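JOB MANIFEST
job_type = single_chain_structure
chain_count = 1
residues = 124
[input]
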Amino acid sequence: MYPRVSQGRRLIGITLDWVACYLIALGFFAGSGSITDRVPHARIPVLILLFAEYAFFVAFGGASFGHRIVGLKVIRFSDGGAPTPIQALIRAALLMPLITAITFDENGRGINERFSNTVLVKTR
C-alpha cells in the first residue's frame, strides 16, 4: 500500500528529536552546575519534552522536527490524510516505551502506528 520507510531513517529522525529535547532539558530544566551534575536531572524533562514535541508537531504539521530533516511525514493509514490530534497523541504516547516503535508488522508499521491508524512515509 505505502512504501516502507527504512529503519535507518526512522532511527535518525527519532534520534534528532531526542537530542534536541535533551539539549533543551539540559539547558532549561536540569539546574545549574557542570554537565555531569545536570545530566541526572534531565531524565524526566527530556521524556516530557519529547512527548510534547512529537505530539504537537505531528498533530499540527504532520512531522516532528527529526522527521522533517530526514524527509518523512506521518499520514493516516486509512486514507492518506493528515493525522488528527488524537492520533498524534496516541502515536506519541506509544512511542515513549521504545519497544512499540521498533516492533513491526508485515506492512512495516510499528505498534504505535497500528494503534493510531497512521503510517510514516517519505516526502523526498
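[summary]
The beta strands are 72-76, 118-122.
The chain has six helices and two strands.
exit_status = 0
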